[in-house]
Recover the amino acids of this structure.
């Protein structure tokens, strides 16, 4: 059974009065019938254009927003409100600016372990800060830290809580490209050590391929749908340097980019038909609508896709 | 180890001090020149005329029988020297109590500051509580806002007769006038600060499952603190402005009372002295606010 | 209060001796107005025993001591506050503190300064003070509930008679009579005051309607001089020292003394709530005696200069001594370049004639301050304690009339208290 499962979740927003007056529907659908299953310890990334509702989906999983239809089940129980078992790492870091890096993480540790004494809390806080390479920056307030350092604190905070699921909302979007690479590798390192289940949302394809086990693809809004999940068959540990020359990487990357460039619309009657519907874990026939790069021709059979519509 | 180099004020700061002091010096000099009077010359005046002038207080007899211009009686504004003499006289015995109606300036300042502090601090606590409540709840904000908008512009002194009538105690009425004056700017600022907290701070608070109390104390108040302190500063100014007339109208001893008594007796030097005292007390208390503001400010 | 004393050089050993010393030093302090330097110089000059004799001639020191010893055992509430407004009308109330009249009768009373009559009214009603200085119509208005919640009050004694004046702005030097005052802006200390009623009487006699032909505003007495100087008002009928002060400030001149309108009119009074008098009868009696005593002391011309010194300080009237001397001694500059001598410019007589109360009530009726019908004599007798005042005066050794009603002459017209109702309706100019 899936550890975290998103069961046919849709999100509708009521529109302002002007639209209804013009005779259109009073609701606006962000996405419809999204289904996603994560196994324990899996790293899944959701990729899509801006505005397709991926952050909204993450918010629903986190409990900040409610699904209009369907629900989210974690470890056998339905979840609707925020809690420590689904900890979020925010795009804007969301560190309390009046607290030092140490105090920010300590706040989380104390919240997660209310019965621990001061010394133990302090020890644990130090541990996670050290794991993220923040020695020396502990007593600084966020305003004095660079973007990269701030997100390290955000990550330390999230890991320190030891959640069941880690939700990352475009975590490196506001960090410069050079630092991004370094932190991504640190994240992989941490995740490998701790084996948390991770759900990440991003628009950076390279990042998705580097970090995830599977990549879910979302079409454009309105009425976006999660059309397919692509497995990333690159062996771990992955490093950017070695990865970017492999055939699998190029194939995957181009496939996803085409998906995005196509307007990421849902497949229509004119598209090649998918294979007969099977369970989400089943393999399906390779997708026929692929661009004609010579490299791809060679690697035709090595791409696995599974449809989840 | 070498001693650290002596600290000197940077050039810009030195320059500011020089300009301030020069302005003060020039101002006082001009004031003195505008108000200086020639010495009194009794030549050419009959005994009868001199007696009339003495009755009128224009001249007084010194101990050795001469007539001099009465230093206590001034036409128009007194010169800076008169104010200095008044200040010296008052501060020479700042804690005297020559009867129920004549207490030294030290005591008067103490009464005014106490009255002000009690009213202001209690109002600040109440205002922050109200502000937090209405800032966090949109519904409550909309419900209470009309009342706040109506009550806000009412001058605190307009409350005085009503308060005196119900409370029937001039001391508490004065404190309540200060209370009413300090309430509204803080309420408005607190509500604003709390309602405009960045959403992600609140999201983190809910993720960490903080109780409402912990959320208030660890997230809401620190986040809104700079705005709250700004509101307190405005309230403080408003309260200081209110305490002086409140004392005048209620007959409570204090610096405001002193101003009024000096005015009643047309001792302009005394009025100037009292005003200066109020100003200086205000400056000192404002400096306190600066420190408080620095404690709670943060950069995003 | 310094413990230097006049008669005995040794330190006091018993409470009685301490009390004696208290009385002595109170008197000494009063005479020198708290001026330590002058007092010591005086003692150096004349020697302690001469000083004692001199003072005894002025002040019944031995009697004072004896009475003080007697009263101190019976009083329920020794620590009292008495409110006053800093005007010369309250001289007996005020001087009783520095000159030791309160302590002579066994009381530890402090006098507390209010800045206006509304404040006095509020303090009285809220029981902030135990007794107050009031305008003679005020105990009537407060007891009847006019302009305030009805609170039953007694007026045991009048403070001063005469002691007011009409002062005009210096620019109105040419004004001869009431007719020239059309359109003037006047001020008075309070609606229910002798000042208001006398001003109205004077203007009405001169053919002007006080509510239609002039403006009469209420301004607290201490602010009147400032207002005159600023040109906000054309004149006022005010208590002293604010008439003399206007002359002193070269802002105005004294047009007419109030004694020229009604010689011997009551002005201010000593008032106490009926509740206090009934709850603390012995205290009330002691206070009553102290006031009557002080009032009689003040009525003697030879004491006036010393009293002026005693009450000029910042704690009391906060006025230049020369202003107070001119008021109390009656030798004054009138603002038009003359020096005048009028002995009863202000006088002090505690007897609260019932007929005075009746006159005030008729004027209150005339100007519609009272709307309903009332029994003039009954109200007067309930509030003004004329009989009791007479009895106490005689006990203390001062003369006092036996009757409580008499006829009064105001601007040449006789007022008969038995025909009060007719009198109230008999005026050409009124609000009836």
């Amino acid at each position: 059974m899936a550890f975290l499962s998103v069961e046919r979740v849709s999100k509708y927003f009521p529109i302002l009065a002007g639209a209804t007056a013009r005779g259109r529907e009073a609701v606006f659908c962000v996405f419809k019938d999204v289904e996603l299953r994560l196994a324990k310890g899996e790293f899944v990334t959701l990729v899509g254009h801006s505005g397709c509702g991926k952050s909204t989906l993450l918010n629903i999983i986190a409990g900040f927003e409610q699904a209009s239809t369907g629900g989210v089940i974690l470890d056998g129980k339905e979840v609707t409100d925020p809690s420590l078992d689904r900890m979020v790492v925010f795009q804007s870091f969301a560190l309390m600016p009046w607290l030092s890096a140490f105090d920010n993480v300590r706040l989380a540790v104390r919240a997660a372990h209310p019965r621990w004494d001061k010394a133990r809390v302090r020890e644990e806080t130090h541990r996670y800060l050290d794991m993220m390479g923040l020695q020396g920056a502990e007593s600084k307030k966020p305003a004095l830290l660079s973007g990269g350092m701030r997100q390290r604190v955000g990550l330390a905070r999230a890991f320190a809580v030891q959640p069941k699921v880690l939700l990352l909302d475009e975590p490196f979007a506001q960090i410069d490209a050079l630092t991004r690479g370094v932190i991504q590798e640190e994240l992989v390192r941490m995740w490998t050590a701790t084996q948390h289940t991770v759900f990440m949302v991003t628009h950076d394809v390279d990042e998705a391929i580097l970090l995830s086990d599977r990549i879910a693809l979302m079409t454009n809004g309105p009425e976006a749908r999660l059309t397919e999940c692509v497995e990333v068959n690159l062996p771990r540990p992955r490093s950017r340097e070695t990865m970017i020359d492999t055939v699998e990487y190029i194939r995957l990357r181009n496939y996803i980019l085409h998906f995005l460039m196509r307007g990421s619309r849902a497949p229509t009657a004119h598209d090649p038909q998918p294979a007969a519907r099977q369970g989400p874990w089943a393999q399906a026939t390779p997708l026929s609508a692929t661009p004609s790069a010579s490299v791809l021709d060679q690697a035709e059979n090595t791409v696995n896709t599974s449809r989840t519509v | 180890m070498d001693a650290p180099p002596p600290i000197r004020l940077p050039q810009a700061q030195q320059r500011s001090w020089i300009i301030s002091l020069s302005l003060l010096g020039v101002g006082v000099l001009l004031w003195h020149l505008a108000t200086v009077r020639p010495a009194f010359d009794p030549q050419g005046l009959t005994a009868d005329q001199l007696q009339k002038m003495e009755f009128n207080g224009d001249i007084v007899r010194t101990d050795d029988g001469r007539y001099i211009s009465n230093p206590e009686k001034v036409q128009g504004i007194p010169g800076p020297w008169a104010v200095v003499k008044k200040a010296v006289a008052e501060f020479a015995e700042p804690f005297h109590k020559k009867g129920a109606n004549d207490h030294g300036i030290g005591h008067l300042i103490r009464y005014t500051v106490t009255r002000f502090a009690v009213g202001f601090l209690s109002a600040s606590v109440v205002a922050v509580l109200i502000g937090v409540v209405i800032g966090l709840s949109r519904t409550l904000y909309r419900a209470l806002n009309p009342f706040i908008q109506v009550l806000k512009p009412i001058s605190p002194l307009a409350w005085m007769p009503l308060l005196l009538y119900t409370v029937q105690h001039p001391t508490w009425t004065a404190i309540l006038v200060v209370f009413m004056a300090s309430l509204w700017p803080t309420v408005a600022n607190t509500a604003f600060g709390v309602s405009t907290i960045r959403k992600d701070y609140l999201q983190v608070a809910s993720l960490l499952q903080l109780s409402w109390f912990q959320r208030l104390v660890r997230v809401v108040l620190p986040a809104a603190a700079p705005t709250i302190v700004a509101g307190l500063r405005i309230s403080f100014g408003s309260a200081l402005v209110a305490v002086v007339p409140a004392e005048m109208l209620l007959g409570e001893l204090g610096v405001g009372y002193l101003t009024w008594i000096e005015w009643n007796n047309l001792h302009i030097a005394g009025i100037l002295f009292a005003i200066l005292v109020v100003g200086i007390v205000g400056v000192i208390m404002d400096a306190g606010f600066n420190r408080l503001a620095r404690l709670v400010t943060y950069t995003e | 209060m310094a413990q230097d004393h006049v008669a005995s050089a040794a330190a006091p050993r018993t409470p009685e001796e301490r009390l004696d010393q208290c009385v002595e030093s109170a008197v000494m302090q009063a005479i020198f107005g708290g001026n330590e330097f002058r007092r010591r110089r005086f003692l150096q000059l004349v020697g302690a025993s001469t000083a004692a004799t001199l003072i005894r001639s002025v002040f019944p020191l031995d009697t004072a001591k004896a009475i003080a010893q007697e009263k101190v055992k019976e009083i329920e509430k020794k620590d009292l506050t008495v409110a006053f407004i800093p005007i010369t009308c309250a001289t007996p109330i005020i001087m009783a503190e520095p000159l030791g009249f309160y302590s002579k009768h066994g009381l530890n009373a402090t006098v507390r300064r209010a800045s206006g009559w509304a404040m006095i009214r509020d303090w009285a009603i809220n029981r902030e003070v135990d007794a107050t200085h009031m305008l003679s119509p005020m105990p009537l208005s407060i007891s009847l509930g006019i302009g305030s919640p009805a609170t039953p009050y007694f007026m045991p004694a009048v403070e001063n008679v005469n002691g007011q004046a009409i002062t005009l702005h210096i620019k109105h030097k040419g004004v001869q009579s009431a007719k020239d005052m059309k359109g003037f802006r006047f001020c008075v200390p309070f609606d229910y005051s002798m000042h208001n009623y006398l001003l109205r009487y004077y203007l009405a006699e001169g053919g002007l309607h006080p509510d239609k032909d002039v403006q009469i505003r209420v301004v607290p007495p201490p602010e009147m001089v400032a207002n005159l100087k600023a040109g906000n008002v054309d004149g006022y009928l005010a208590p002293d020292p604010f008439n003399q002060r206007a002359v002193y400030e070269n802002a105005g001149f004294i047009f007419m003394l109030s004694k020229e309108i009604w010689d011997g009119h009551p002005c201010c009074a000593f008032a106490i709530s009926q509740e206090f008098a009934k709850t603390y009868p012995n205290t009330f009696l002691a206070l009553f005696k102290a006031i009557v005593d002080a009032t009689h002391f003040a009525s003697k011309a030879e004491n006036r200069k010393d009293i002026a010194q005693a009450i000029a300080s910042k704690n009391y009237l906060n006025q230049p001594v020369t202003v107070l001397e001119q008021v109390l001694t009656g030798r004054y500059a009138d603002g038009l370049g003359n020096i005048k001598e009028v002995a009863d410019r202000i006088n002090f007589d505690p007897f609260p004639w019932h007929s005075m109360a009746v006159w005030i009530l008729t004027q209150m009726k005339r100007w519609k301050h009272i709307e309903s019908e009332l029994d003039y004599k009954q109200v007067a007798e309930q509030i003004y304690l004329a009989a009791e005042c007479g009895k106490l005066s005689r006990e203390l050794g001062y003369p006092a009339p036996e009757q409580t009603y008499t006829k009064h002459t105001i601007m040449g017209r006789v007022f008969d208290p038995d025909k009060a109702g007719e009198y109230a309706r008999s005026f050409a100019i009124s609000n009836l």
